[in-house]
């Protein structure tokens, strides 16, 4: 990932509440409605050869309920007869039965290795659909959620190889051509992986465009690109312009290149692997830095120009491009810096540190052409300073003022299982990573569509809180914006060992999670109190309170789908669709 910009997520302080006191359990009743389904949900059980954690994450924990973010309170699911069923809610007390809007042409039961059918809503009038057997459909739906205007018609369908699920899709216009990009997820056998799980994960990025031939408009695949990784991504989404891709994953993904690209890359690798002598050597003490540069035989003192400034250095030989140039790691007293030519035809430069005592990890920021030489006394000094961190016994000196960290003091919810997680942005033209963020201490929680015309948001744990981030692919300086905070949700969700799905309202008014069976937990944002309440410990008035609500479903069937809107939670089990009224409409 050389050349990628290493970025960081910048939380907005105004959206954080350091004085948050926790959630108060509320016993207020929640209106819960249920609809019996005419036919069971088309749940697909994992096969015997789908035994890895990646199979469980991708297919075993699949959300069978699909929310249409373009239209309010509009959900879909696929039943065992291959029917796409829709429920559109306007009034909770006058619920209609789910209605059929489309039927998959293929017989789902005929395919032995099929996956669950998947749906994604690319635009207000377009839907991408997979039947789970390896066939992709592009549907023109009309205005959805309305029986009068909603009519699903197949615009494109093609067999694309082994079974997949749709991870994301977007509709866009490029060069006056209607186009659609779809991201397909597969977990495939890897014959070369003899030490790992024996599988790898692929994301196929398919671009479909409307092409006019002899006056006839039809959709065709114009580009297929494949990324490969060793873990199922937590989040994978195509930018709204179709020009890039963002992935949050535990292990990195990379594009699988053509043979010509591979040959070119091998040549580059050979050049990089050729042993090169360092351009310069440098040493440091607490007060100064010494740089040594070997000079060509014909170079004289008059050919050398060394320019010092408080934060930069520039060394040139004759009229050639600068030999060394760039920003120094830390400031120097440039008026006291000197240089001389030694008898062995080497240039020796002395820099006087402005901040005495500080150690420089590098000389010129980002320059890897030099080599740092540490003298033996510095080595022993550093080893001695780190001695207290290592020992052959668990806790050699428990009475010491600063004892080593005891892992047994950590709670289970403080453990980060996926320290290697990262967020990467890939460019669609170069197929290279342009931005990368290490998410080691910020585990992924869930994703949500706040605005269907933007990329999906993702929620990460930050300390005890859960922070919601909105990607802006068209704003390089503000590519990931912190838009909402769910106080203490990072800590709370970690204690729910049986949790299956998490979600939040698009207006951030609440977050919710459900367990595998029956129970749903709702966490409202803090709201002002109607009465005066005092914190006795601190002797201050409490102005607002955040409430936790719990709903228990009247069903013993496992929860298969979970979606949140501003007013309602939709919970899908094998034979029932539940609606929980969380907020009243305006």
Q: Count helical runs.
A: 4
CATH class of the largest domain: Mainly Beta
Quantity of strands, as a count: 40
CATH topology of the largest domain: Methylamine Dehydrogenase, Chain H
Shape: globular
In CATH, the architecture of the largest domain is 7 Propeller
Query: What is the total number of structural domains?
Result: 2
How much of the residues is beta strand, in percent?
35-45%
Q: Supply the helix-strand structural class.
A: mainly beta
Which residues sit in consecutive blocks of at least 5 with pLDDT less than 50?
Answer: 414-418
Provide mean pLDDT, rounded.
86
Q: Termini, distance in Å?
A: 49 Å
Sheet with most strands? 6 strands, mixed
Helix content percent band: under 10%
Radius of gyration: 30 Å
Annotate the secondary structure layout:
Layout: E1 5-6, E2 23-25, E3 31-36, H1 53-60, E4 66-67, E5 74-78, E6 83-88, E7 99-103, E8 118-123, E9 126-130, E10 135-140, E11 153-159, E12 165-174, E13 177-189, E14 199-213, E15 216-229, E16 235-238, E17 244-249, E18 254-255, H2 259-273, E19 280-284, E20 288-294, E21 304-308, E22 312-317, E23 324-327, E24 338-341, E25 346-352, E26 370-372, H3 376-385, E27 422-427, E28 433-438, E29 444-448, E30 457-462, E31 465-471, E32 480-486, H4 489-494, E33 499-504, E34 510-515, E35 519-524, E36 527-535, E37 540-552, E38 559-564, E39 568-573, E40 576-581
Parallel strand pairs: 1-28, 2-37, 19-26
Antiparallel strand pairs: 3-40, 4-5, 5-6, 6-7, 8-9, 9-10, 10-11, 12-13, 13-14, 14-15, 15-18, 16-17, 17-27, 19-20, 20-25, 21-22, 22-23, 24-25, 27-28, 29-30, 30-31, 31-32, 33-34, 34-35, 35-37, 36-37, 38-39, 39-40
């Amino acid at each position: 990932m050389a050349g990628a910009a290493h970025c960081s997520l910048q939380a907005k302080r105004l959206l954080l509440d350091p004085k948050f006191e926790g959630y108060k359990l509320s016993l207020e009743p929640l209106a819960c409605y249920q609809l019996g389904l005419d036919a069971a949900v088309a749940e697909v059980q994992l096969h015997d050869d789908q035994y890895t954690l990646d199979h469980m994450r991708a297919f075993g924990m699949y959300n069978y309920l699909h929310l249409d973010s373009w239209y309010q309170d509009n959900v879909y699911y696929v039943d065992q007869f291959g029917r796409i069923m829709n429920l559109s809610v306007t009034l909770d007390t006058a619920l209609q039965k789910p209605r059929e809007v489309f039927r998959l042409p293929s017989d789902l039961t005929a395919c032995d290795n099929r996956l669950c059918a998947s749906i994604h809503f690319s635009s207000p009038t377009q839907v991408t659909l997979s039947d789970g057997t390896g066939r992709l459909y592009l549907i023109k739906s009309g205005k959805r959620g309305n029986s009068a205007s909603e009519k699903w018609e197949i615009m494109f369908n093609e067999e694309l190889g082994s079974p997949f699920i749709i991870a994301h899709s977007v509709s866009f216009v490029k060069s006056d051509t209607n186009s659609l990009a779809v991201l397909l997820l597969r977990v495939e056998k890897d014959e070369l992986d003899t030490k790992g799980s024996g599988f790898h994960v692929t994301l196929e990025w398919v671009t479909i465009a409307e092409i006019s031939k002899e006056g006839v408009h039809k959709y065709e695949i114009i580009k297929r690109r494949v990324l490969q990784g060793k873990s199922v991504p937590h989040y994978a989404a195509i930018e709204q312009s179709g020009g890039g891709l963002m992935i949050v994953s535990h292990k990195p993904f990379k594009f699988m290149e053509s043979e010509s690209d591979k040959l070119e890359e091998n040549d580059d690798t050979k050049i990089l692997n050729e042993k090169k002598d360092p351009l310069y050597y440098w040493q440091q003490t607490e007060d100064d830095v010494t740089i040594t540069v070997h000079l060509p035989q014909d170079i004289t003192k008059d050919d050398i120009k060394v320019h010092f400034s408080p934060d930069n250095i520039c060394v040139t030989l004759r009229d050639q491009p600068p030999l060394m140039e760039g920003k120094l790691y830390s400031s120097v007293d440039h008026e006291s810096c000197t240089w001389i030519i030694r008898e062995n035809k080497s240039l020796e430069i002395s820099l006087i540190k402005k901040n005495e005592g500080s150690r420089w990890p590098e000389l010129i920021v980002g320059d890897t052409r030099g080599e740092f030489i540490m003298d033996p006394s510095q080595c022993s000094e550093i080893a001695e300073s780190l001695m207290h961190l290592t020992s052959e016994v668990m806790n050699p000196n428990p009475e010491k003022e600063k004892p080593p960290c005891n892992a047994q003091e950590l709670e289970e919810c403080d453990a980060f299982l996926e320290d290697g997680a990262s967020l990467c942005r890939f460019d669609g033209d170069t197929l290279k990573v342009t931005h990368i963020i290490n998410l080691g201490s910020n585990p992924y929680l869930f994703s949500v569509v706040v605005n269907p015309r933007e990329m999906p948001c993702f929620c990460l744990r930050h300390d005890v809180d859960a922070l919601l981030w909105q990607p802006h692919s068209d704003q390089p300086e503000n590519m990931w914006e912190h838009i909402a905070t769910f106080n203490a949700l990072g800590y709370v969700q970690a204690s729910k060992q049986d949790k299956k799905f998490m979600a939040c309202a698009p207006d951030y008014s609440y977050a919710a999670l459900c367990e595998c069976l029956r129970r749903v937990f709702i966490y409202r944002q803090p709201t002002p109190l109607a009465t005066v309440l005092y914190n006795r410990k601190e002797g201050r008035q409490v102005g607002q309170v955040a409430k936790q609500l719990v709903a228990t479903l009247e069903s013993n069937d496992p929860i298969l789908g979970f979606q949140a809107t501003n007013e309602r939670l939709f919970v899908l089990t094998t034979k029932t669709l539940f609606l929980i009224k969380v907020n009243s409409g305006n």
